[in-house]
Amino acid sequence: MALIELTEVTKRYRVGEQEIAALDGVNLSIEAGEYAAIIGPSGSGKSTLMHLLGCLDTPTSGRLMIDGIDASRAGGDRLSELRNAKIGFVFQSFNLLPKFNVLQNVELPMIYAGLRAADRKSRALAAIERVGLSNRVKNTPLQLSGGQMQRVAIARALVNDPRIIFADEPTGNLDSTTGESILALFQELSAQGRTIVLVTHDQEIAARTPRRIEMRDGKIVADVRTAAAAESRNPNIEIRNESE
Amino acid sequence: MKLWLSLLMGLKEIGAHKFRSILTMLGIILGVASLLTTFALTAGIAHGMRDFMTQIGGIEKIEITKQDPPEEQSGFADISPGSTVADAEIIQRRSPLVNYVSPVSSLSNAALTRGSQTYRATVYGCWPDFYYINKHELEVGRRLSQLDLDEARHVCLIGQSVVRSLWPGRKSADVLGQSMLINGRPFTVVGVFKLYERASEKARRAQGIVRPGGGNLSAGRSKNYDPFFGKNASVQTPITTMFYDYKSANVVGKVDQGPNYKLDQLIFQLSDAARFHEAVEQTRALLNVTHRGIEDFAFVTREEWFDSMERSIRSTRISGGLIACISLIVGGIGITNIMLASVTERIREIGVRRAIGAKGRDIFLQIIVESSVIGLGGGVLGLGGAFGLLRLLAKITEGENTPLVEPGAILISVGFAIFIGIVSGFYPALKASRLDPIEALRYG
Questions:
Q1: Is B360 in Cβ contact with A84 (below 8 Å)?
Q2: Which of residues 15-34 of A touch B (CB under 8 A)?
Q3: What's the whole-model pTM score?
Q4: Predicted ipTM beyond 0.90
Q5: Residues of B in contact with A100 (CB under 8 A)
Q6: What is residue A84's three-state secondary structure?
Q7: From CA B336, how far away is CA B160, in angstroms rounded?
Q8: Helix axis angle, B303-345 to B347-355, nearest 10°
Q9: Environment class of B258 (CB within 10 Å of its CB; exposed 0-12, middle 13-18, buried 19+)
Q10: Residue range A189-237, pLDDT digits in tens
């Protein structure tokens, strides 16, 4: 079974009198270890899709399985647990807590996981080392550059050893050089077997991922794998057949 | 999430906004300070009053006085011998609920003379028990004895007012064994009472402050009413001596009416104040025998008086406490206000926390802990404020009852502050915990 499986997922919002379908019957599956980009113009439903995949929201109808758990019917607390244990988020605007230093920021997910202080510290330090910021442990986010902040955010996303990492426009607030290094970091993580899903509207970035999922008007209009990806993994169609 | 971590986070948040937090706490600080001060002041007053009540005999002292018999008995009221020593004797023998009993025959406005010094006071002819019932304490000498009574000796116990008037500048010990005249007849002083005074007077004297007019021994009807004036002016002598020397003849209009051995007063003390009514009924039954069924006596108890004192203390405490509570509640509203602002300020932070796995109740706990810490901090600082305020008050209103800080009052005040903190954090916490994670992440 795939790590993430969406079956006929629909998400509707009510805006005043109108009902808008942000997602309209989406079928998608992502295997463990994949590095995919969801791409589309604003209003295409890519953010909604990411919120669903990230267990921040539940679909109006359809089924959403994450690591074998049905997230489409889960309650708020269950979703929180799923987010905590299985998912790491990286945001466009970093979203670090400004009053906490780097170490404390990275420790935060483990606090909610209920880990002991000693374990938290050692794991946080390991994650910080992984993103190359060991010399910045006691700094607060305001003392860091944008690229460093994003690295801290990635460390925070990694620290609970999640099954999937979601990155929402991770380079959107960074200059191209820094953005490049962040993407390189994602590349490395992917090479180590992490499942990473990027959300972006930047074709160039999407072009560098092995898989591109293109959205428009709440539907997936294209799901393309590069040759390299196709070689190592089953084509998309086949996965779909498997799930049906 | 563990409570301890929430507490640390709350402290961190408060520490990050020190000035704002102090301002928020101010309402609680003032509330707790005024609540505790009110409690301390009323406790001081209550303590002073109870002290005074005990000094004048306490609730367990009961007095029997004369009363006109009811109308249906007026025709044959003469069969009653009236109040006599026999009443005291029967109570002493037959009433197990009575500790001490003393008949009293007094000589009011008697002239106490030594040389050229004269002092006018009431002389009480009594039994030795009188000393215990009225809670006297000797400074030097001895109490009256049964032998004094049996032999009708000319001995007396005197209070400090008498000492200072007749033996000015002399110590109590010097007065022992000296004689003085009571309405012209010589008596030997065998005991001198200690000086009775309020706690505040004692404190003042200890500090060496002497009020003009000689402290509480100044005239009883002066501006500074002294509840112990009568007690300090007390003169006690055996009731037998009183009868033989002063009550054996009763000259009215140049005709001797014969001896007057009726009592002016009959006082007794209960062994157990809890069995107050039982004791009164028991004594009433005994006196009905000696008075041959004529109800020409009445009980004067302090029950109602003491009750009304307690009531007034209680109402002072409640009204003061209520006002202080209102300021605490206002302080709580301040906390709610600030916490709401703080939640709005941190919507994005809350979104991030939710995204990385915080549950609604984790966020709720975080906000509640923060507001309770503000409440607790305000309570503790208010405690300090209260002690400062009490020192100030003690300086300003010297001579009043010293404020008394009871541990229970501290517990109530600080506990209430924490309670207010929790209650006022409730709504902001609920609001924060119900934020939609997605919208919170998008906010700002």
A1: no
A2: none
A3: 0.72
A4: no
A5: 12
A6: helix
A7: 61
A8: 80
A9: exposed
A10: 999 889 999 998 888 888 888 999 999 888 999 888 876 554 444 444 4
